[in-house]
Amino acid sequence: MGKATAHQRHAFIELLVYWEGRINAKDLERQFNLSRQQCSAYINSYKQLFPDNLVYDNSHKNYKPSPGFKRHYISADADAYLNWLHTGHWPEHAATVSPYTAALEIPVRQVSPDIMRGLVIAVRQQRRIDVEYASLSSPDSIGRILSPHCFVRTGLRWHLRAWCEKSRAYRDFVLSSFRGTPELLDKATFLANGDTAWNTQVTVLLQPDPRLNPEKRAILENDYQMVNGQLAITTRGCLVQYLLRELQVNTKVLDGTPEAQQLICVNLVDIKEWLFEG
Q1: Could you give the CA distance from residue 45 to residue 263 in angstroms, rounded to a whole number?
Q2: Among 112, 266, 153, 150, which Cα is nearest to 203's?
Q3: Rounded to whole angstroms, how far apart are CA atoms 142 and 136?
Q4: pLDDT tens, 139-148?
Q5: 152 found inside a domain
Q6: What residues have CB less than 8 Å from 95, skipping those under 6 apart?
Q7: Buried b (16+ CB within 10 A) or exposed e, 184-223
Q8: 3-class SS at 122?
């Protein structure tokens, strides 16, 4: 693998400034294994390219986005930032498109950088946060005081896992459903170690729909690399429902045609307590 180019390092600077609201030489040093002098040089070269994008914060010894900040390297899709936050990996080479592959383009769910900056601080510093949230069940924005501990990708969407003082429970919140400007509060007392559904490992057992003939069942067993006709997947208790949803396993009513159902859950009784859809 070749070294990251100036373009990718500038893109990384923009990524952190946009989504975290800050950047300093140490961030580049950790990410690219550069010297402090090299890191400062890349920040300065970015400033020369876009002199109106960054302002220096003397009190925190870092750069922040200016009021007129404009994106030049990254999109408004939070996925790139969240994927980096999850893996720590930043692409070393510019993205290239192969003529032999294609990818389904999924509509981007809008996430405000102002909201993301507050949520990231709250997670990292284990702080409570006051933020507005709207959902299909409650379309009008309602203020929620949350104690978040993790960002979670559940297929096509990112959620925030947090203790909700209104619900008095740990819940999942869709990032694109937050509204307004969050207010950081004091230290949280409800942390990840108190989240039972988060800390409980649950094994889901799946098998081909028994209504399928042996030949069709064998195809699914090969597709999913099943052992003795079953697929065992272990995940967190709070993620069981999302797992079944992504695999299109209906736990309420079997589809009328086994070819559409394909998979069934073998140990439904064992996992039922983790299903929030009944």
Answers
A1: 54
A2: 266
A3: 12
A4: 778 899 999 9
A5: yes
A6: none
A7: eeeebebebeebebbeeebebebbbbeebeeeebeebbee
A8: helix
CA 16, 18, 24: angle at the middle one, nearest 5?
40
Residue type present at position 239: L
Domain span at residue 134?
113-196
- Indicate which CATH number applies to the domain containing 55: 1.10.10
Residue 101 domain flag: no
Q: How many Å apart are CA 149 and CA 131, to the nearest integer?
A: 15
Side-chain-side CA neighbours of 241 within 13 Å: the count stands at 12
17-46 tens-digit pLDDT: 999 999 999 999 999 999 999 999 999 999
Tokens for 98, please give them. 């192969």
pTM: 0.90
Phi, psi angle pair for 228, to nearest 5°: 55, 40
Q: How far is CA 138 from the centre of its chain?
A: 23
Given 196, 212, 240, the domain boundary residue is 196
